[in-house]
């Protein structure tokens, strides 16, 4: 199972290298089902893995001048604050037992996994459906819609804090539509935002010292290898052509987690 987990860790990186989003949504299921990590810890581990992998993935975009620093700051500040506060205060304050209805019991782990599964289904829809964001590399004059960007950043940050996914599938369309960035620049900027908020959110954890750092660094290393593979493939194949197929895979995974954790628990 662990060998399959490491192979899937490479796939996480490949997805990030190809389309700049989507891969991180697989990190929690991989940790959960292939490495036996509980849901709360898996969301914390995911923040580190996704953050470190996104740092490496953003280097190429920095080198090609495809990162908009101003946009990363405007979108990133509310997102970083939200993810840090969520990991430091909201997640620890969620009670272990939520409610019981007859034989059905909702606990903290199940709640986080249900939210995560619903996010996976939402992410898959955005991957399968053709994007309304203009696929252009022409730079437009930036006009920041600050209220919308602040709200979107805070929402994405909160979701990242809860479930440990980067949220690139939400960030990239927002950067194109709300910040008028060309698609490639939106992908590069998204990776910087994901890296910043994930790693800073990880610092909000109270049990960092007791984590399995060997596992964390090993899974991160495999995901980073995947980023390089994805970047090489991206030069030969348009990542957006593979996005719908990956979206269907994420959809199946989301439905599987939802059913397994609620019906067949």
Question: What tags apply to this protein structure?
Answer:
265 residues, two-stranded antiparallel sheet, single chain, mainly alpha
Task: Walk me through what this model shows.
This protein is globular. α1 packs antiparallel against α2, α3 crosses α8 and α5 (108-128) packs antiparallel against α10 (239-262). The chain contains 10 helices and 2 strands, in the order ααααββαααααα. It has one domain. The mean pLDDT is 84. Strands 1-2 form a two-stranded antiparallel ribbon. By secondary structure, it is mainly alpha-helical. Helix content is 73%, strand content 3%. β1 (97-101) and β2 (104-107) form a beta hairpin. The two termini are 20 Å apart.
The N- and C-terminal alpha carbons lie at a distance of 20 Å
Runs in which pLDDT lies below 50 for 5 or more consecutive residues are none
Structural class: mainly alpha
Q: What's the domain count?
A: 1
SSE run: HHHHEEHHHHHH
Oligomer: single chain
The pLDDT mean sits at 84
Q: How large a portion of the residues is in β-strands, by DSSP E?
A: under 5%
Count every helix, treating DSSP H or I runs of 4 or more residues as helices.
10
Using only C-alpha atoms, the radius of gyration works out to: 17 Å
Largest sheet: 2 strands, antiparallel
Number of strands: 2
Approximately how much helix is present in the residues? Answer: over 70%
General form = globular
Major sheet: arrangement of strands = 1-2
